[in-house]
Design a protein that fits this description.
3 helices, 77% helix
Length: 73
């Protein structure tokens, strides 16, 4: 079930994935195995973008409006 809490959780998950991807990319420059670490960083950043796009799509759908009417912003 979609609610304010799940929407906030997906946004925080997206931010966490983006931050971990950036940190992994910085680590990839100094790591012994730069290519696999860079691939993991890319997957984390892209996963964060997909998660944020998914939560945005859920928020703008017309049927989900009544779930977010009582959210405190």
């Amino acid at each position: 079930m979609i609610s304010c809490t799940t929407l906030r959780s997906t946004v925080l998950l997206s931010a966490g994935l983006l931050l971990s991807g950036v940190l992994l990319l910085l680590l990839a420059e100094t790591a012994g195995l730069p290519v696999p670490t860079a691939h993991l960083a890319l997957l984390a950043v892209l996963g964060g973008a997909v998660t944020l796009a998914f939560s945005f799509a859920l928020a703008v759908l017309p049927w989900s409006r009544h779930y977010f009417d009582n959210c405190e912003h």
